[in-house]
From TrEMBL:
Protein source organism: Tianweitania aestuarii
Biological role: Cell division protein that is involved in the assembly of the Z ring. May serve as a membrane anchor for the Z ring.
Keywords: Cell cycle, Cell division, Cell membrane, Membrane
Keyword Transmembrane attached: no
Protein name, UniProt field: Cell division protein FtsA
Annotated membrane topology: Peripheral membrane protein
Matches recorded under InterPro entries: ATPase_NBD, Cell_div_FtsA, FtsA/MreB, SHS2_FtsA
Quaternary structure and partners: Self-interacts. Interacts with FtsZ.
NCBIfam families: ftsA
Amino acid sequence: MSWLGGNSDNSAKRSGIVSVLDIGSHKICCIIAKLKPREESQLLRGRTHRVQVIGIGHQKSRGVKSGVIVDLDRAEQAIRLAVDAAERMAGLTIDSLIVNVSAGRLKSDAATATVNLGGHETDEADVRRVLEAGARQALRHERQVLHTLPVGFLLDTERGIQDPRGMVGDVLGVDMHVLTADTAPLRNLELCINRAHLSVERMVATPYASGLSALVDDEGEMGAACIDIGAGTTSMSVFFSGKMVYASSIPIGGAHVTMDLARGLSTAMDDAERMKVMHGTVMPAAGDDRDLVTVQPIGSEADDGGMQVPRAAMNRIIRARVEETLEIVRDRLNQSGSGHLAGKRVVLTGGGAQLQGLAEAARRILGRNVRVGRPLGVAGLPEAAKGPAFAAAVGLMIYPQVAEFEVGQVAGGVSHRLTGTGGRFGRVGQWLRQSF
């Protein structure tokens, strides 16, 4: 997926350990993996390292609602348990993590900037200067820069340069995609992780991570949208020419379908979730009016036998919420100005993507080819973690391979002025800086 691969000389690339934390509204998952230099593959040409999972732990999410921390104590406890399980399995202790972000009203902005070179060769410092200048343009009050992604560089009048280092010119410019989020939810996310005696290595937008994990290189090059349907949020990203050019999120997800069922059928949330998973579908099916589903009303005894409801009634509730969500996603993509770049390809990820009939509904409402995406090119995942629900977590492990030119959170750059948290927020580990 990377538009700029890592060092092509394998001997110069380093092996190392990467630890990630996927904080969702349904589950909190910690994965520890070894990254080893890899040979180029046809399917995933942009990957510079092979990812081998050595530890994984996940917990039912607590204290998190629509991606936002709403109870520090409960969220901290769930994070501790997930990290502890992963550490025990890996046989090592971690002190920092790459973490995903889906809350905070993600917003994409375009930015351009130029710096004078004075005719000398472009070096690493020049690239960093022009990227930092572009990142500053996108700053807003109470907003935090998550990603600064160069779409293309220009030298004097030549546009579309992918890597200007070593080239000569008078003016170096950059066209950038800058992704920002509200500061408060990000600070509380970091605070919660700090309370578990861990630090944040980097924050990565969930739709970016999911796209890195589930799109094959040709989809990322020719254009595709990745829609991650989590429990509390649905986030979307558009990739084109191997780069993420747009991202957004809405605070609606699979848990809202469950809530609608619980209210509509007057049953408990856990029972509604079970019914949704076992019997629910988005598409109407023959015999739905005749098929009956047992519903346990709230407050009734388990041995009461419950009441019988036509499956069609349950599925109408599911369909209404799913169609509304997909229509919001469609409108958001159309209004973004980047929807056309996705062409006719949509990849669905997240736990909500597993709902029966969802791909067909998305095909109809979005008017595009739709497939359910799974994490690609990662070894050592247990069978239960190979589905679309784990796409974001796996994408966090792939992220360091594509982060070479990002400055939004880099220590010593603009990061501390951007974040306002004055320290550990977004600190990039020494190994990540040296290895990619």
